[in-house]
Design a protein that fits this description.
The structure holds 2 protein chains of 2 kinds.
Chain A lengths: L9 H9 L8 H12 L6 H9 L3 H10 L11 E6 L2 H4 L3 H12 L12 E6 L11 E3 L2 E3 L4 H10 L3
Helix pairs in contact in A: 1-3, 3-4
Chain B lengths: L1 E3 L4 H5 L2 H15 L4 E3 L13 E5 L2 E5 L7 H5 L7 E2 L4 H4 L17 H6 L4 H7 L3 H11 L11 H10 L6 E6 L8 H8 L1 H15 L3 E6 L4 H16 L15 E6 L9 H8 L23 E5 H13 L1 H5 L2 E2 L2 E2 L1 E8 L5 E6 L4 H8 L9 E6 L6 E3 L9 H5 L9 E6 L4 H15 L5 H4 L1 H13 L5 H15 L3 H5 L1 H10 L1 H11 L1
Classes of the chains: A alpha+beta, B alpha/beta.
The structure holds flavin mononucleotide and iron/sulfur cluster.
Chain lengths: 158, 505
């Protein structure tokens, strides 16, 4: 389950930022911690991070936009990632992904109308001998067929 | 009763947690006392969840086990596989790096030591830095991350560099499809990696280490973080490594979903908190790496192989293999294959031997069409190349790339034009953006392959030309090697690039 986004407060953000300032190369751990708390990187965090690390907001934006993991707007309540990589393709991954997207009526990166699920592509979950693989929030599932996917989607309210 | 149920994320993804829960519940209902140990995986993925029960000191295997099977399992009515270590897939391997994986409790340091763990580090602590590096050089170890660069030479460069602070950075970005060896060892024997990094630190004079671990591996991150904490508490890591008075400590850092961050200089930028853009070399990371300081960047398997080299000696390691590829290759047999998993054996086995004899052919039962070796930047090998021996130079001579030793098997339903298109699409999605042939070329590549599919007779020549430009004009192997899968698909499977055109005519 993604954290439902309460309006992030400055003190909370500042605490998450200062928790990481002692690290060598603190930015990625900081962004992960903020996203873990709020489900995304809130706009309000931008000047605070830029200030704390003495970098420009443009640089910060450049970093956030470079990585597939970071989002600047909330996702659905759950994130379902489906592996698109070769090993899963070899065992029917494409068909599974296509069917799932059609069933949910979304494209990659889209969120279902009820806000339950955002579907993301992922390139390899390390389940290459037991694909097709998917990941529901932090839980990896392997040998996913249509029926298994339906069960997973039902569990997260899609 | 001692029962082992793997906690490896592949086993969990196939239901191992539910099986462990069922065992606890059913044992309680029966009034039998069981001790459940969550081991790593043995690497026989078609048998997961593979449950092992100790019978008179022999570990008997059962698998795959579903929660519904647990009553029969506990009542001794489930058909078993016999002693796990007698299964041919396991018995025929030469396990150096993976010797403990699946055998021990991954987070039990005593168990680790009972199986040879820390013997290598103890030995290294008695050696000079020069001798440590010489031992690695003599072992013939080459980087298992893809490039096959001699590890001893890299370490020596860092050792000789003068700096107040040096680093050991472990590349655990394992982004290649078809690979999971890094994940498997981090989840199944994490202390091996820690020990290997500590030895590297002693060898080159580095006191700090980082593992850059991809975010797609949340289980591996959890296990590695727990293992580091234990190693710190037990004095294996810290200011006084095993009472030697020498320091080495390390931290686990989470990646953020960028394939290119597996490239070592991109990884270093990412670790520093920057965009994961590839840096031009020189300067070498060995001289100006993390925060501009001398840094060893090594793959997980390279570092995890170091302890056994010190435990058993460089000679022992060097005695396996073929040509300049010494030691073992940790094959990851994946995709559409009957017996998929991790298979560690001396370098030199043939591709066909791996796919057919070890892997048992396809899972679908259809003929094998192609095998992609070495990840998304590796070539699609046709069956005609099945005699190719798996050694760096030997396989290279056949137009292949060993890379991180992952093999993805495809049956005859695979459409190689689509696979070539995917390779270009992947390159476009993951390009760091620094070079035009990669950033723009990959997008053009997708379009050109679509034109081939539509029957454009000139497009194949254009694609070949584009691939040459990418090969020549790219700074790193993402842009530079994407032509491998594309061109190997085009040349080895020309029919797949012609059929639509003919169908249209
Ligand atoms: C696009 C790209 C992705 C790479 N991904 C990885 C990776 O996931 N893991 C890895 O160990 N090496 C990867 N490499 C190779 C590294 O740049 C580097 O050679 C390696 O980490 C060195 O360690 P080794 O000598 O122990 O193999 C990648 C290279 C490129 C160009
Ligand atoms: S080849 Fe591609 S990924 Fe590599 S440096 Fe150039 S643009 Fe970046």
């Amino acid at each position: 389950m993604q954290p439902s986004a309460p309006a992030p407060s400055d003190p909370e953000l500042r605490a998450l930022i200062s928790d990481h300032l002692h690290l060598e190369g603190p930015l990625l751990p900081m962004l992960h911690a903020i996203q873990r708390s709020f489900g995304y990187i809130p706009e309000a965090a931008m000047p605070l991070i830029a200030d704390a690390l003495n970098i420009t907001r443009a640089e910060l934006h450049g970093v956030i936009s470079f990585y597939h993991d970071f989002r600047k707007a909330p996702a659905g309540r759950h994130i379902v990632k489906i592996c698109r990589a070769e090993a899963c393709q070899a065992v029917g991954g494409n068909a599974l992904a296509q069917r799932t997207l059609e069933k949910l009526g979304v494209d990659w990166h889209g969120t279902t109308i009820n806000g339950a699920v955002t579907v993301e592509p992922v390139y390899c979950l390390g389940m290459c001998a037991c694909g097709p693989a998917a990941m529901v929030d932090d839980r990896v599932v392997a040998r996913v067929d249509a029926a298994r996917m339906d069960t997973l989607l039902a569990e997260v309210g899609a | 009763m001692k029962i082992r149920v793997p906690m490896d994320s592949a086993a969990k993804a196939l239901g191992a947690d539910a099986v462990a829960d069922a065992i606890t519940a059913q044992a309680a209902a029966r009034g039998v006392e069981v001790e459940i140990i969550r081991n790593g995986t043995r690497g026989m993925l078609w048998l997961e969840p593979l449950v092992e029960i100790d019978v008179n000191g022999v570990r008997m295997g059962f698998g795959p086990v579903a929660p519904e099977d647990v009553p029969a399992l506990l009542d001794g009515k489930m058909n078993g596989l016999g002693p796990v270590e007698d299964l041919p897939f396991l018995a025929n391997q030469t396990r150096l790096t993976f010797a403990r994986c699946g055998v021990i409790d991954p987070l039990n340091l005593d168990d680790y030591q009972h199986h040879g763990g820390l013997a290598g580090l103890r030995r290294a602590l008695e050696m000079t830095d020069e001798d440590i590096v010489a031992e690695v050089t003599a072992s013939g170890l080459r980087g298992r991350g893809g490039a096959g660069f001699p590890t001893g030479i890299k370490w020596n460069t860092v050792r000789e560099a003068e700096a107040a602070q040096k680093y050991i950075v472990c590349n655990a970005d394992e982004g290649d499809s078809g690979t999971f060896a890094d994940r498997m060892i981090m989840e199944g024997d994490p202390f091996t990696l820690i020990e290997g990094m500590a030895i590297a630190g002693l060898g080159v004079g580095a006191t700090r280490g980082y593992v850059y671990l991809r975010s797609e591996y949340p289980d591996a991150i959890r296990v590695m973080r727990a293992a580091v904490k234990i190693a710190q508490a037990k004095g294996v890591l810290g200011p006084d490594v095993m009472g030697s008075g020498r320091a080495f400590d390390m931290e686990i850092r989470e990646g953020a979903g960028a394939y290119v961050c597996g490239e070592e200089t991109s990884l270093l930028n990412s670790l520093e908190g920057k965009r994961g853009v590839v840096r031009a070399k020189p300067p070498l990371p060995a001289l100006e790496g993390f925060l501009g300081r001398p840094t060893v960047v090594n793959n997980v398997i390279s570092l995890a192989t170091v302890p056994v080299i010190f435990e058993k000696g460089a000679e022992h390691h060097a005695s396996f293999g073929v040509g300049k590829s010494r030691g073992t290759i940790t094959l990851q047999i994946a995709g559409n294959v009957k017996h998929g998993g991790l298979y560690e054996t001396a370098f030199g086995v043939t591709l066909g031997g791996v796919v057919n004899d070890i892997g048992g052919g396809t899972a679908s039962g259809r003929p094998v069409k192609a095998v992609q070796v070495g990840g998304p930047l590796g070539a699609y090998m046709p069956r005609e190349k099945f005699d190719a021996p798996m050694g760096y130079e030997e396989f290279g001579a056949e137009g292949g790339l060993i890379g991180h030793a992952g093999l993805v098997v495809f049956d005859d339903t695979a459409d190689m034009l689509q696979m070539a298109r995917f390779a270009m699409e992947f390159c476009a999605v993951e390009s760091c953006g620094k070079c035009t042939p990669c950033r723009i070329g990959a997008v053009r590549g997708v379009e050109t392959i679509d034109r081939i599919a539509e029957g454009d007779a000139d497009a194949a020549a254009l694609l070949t030309d584009l691939c040459e430009t990418m090969t020549d004009g790219s700074l790193c192997a993402l842009g530079g090697f994407t032509p491998y899968p594309v061109m190997s698909a085009l040349t080895n499977f020309p029919d797949d690039f012609a059929h639509r055109k003919e169908a249209a005519e």
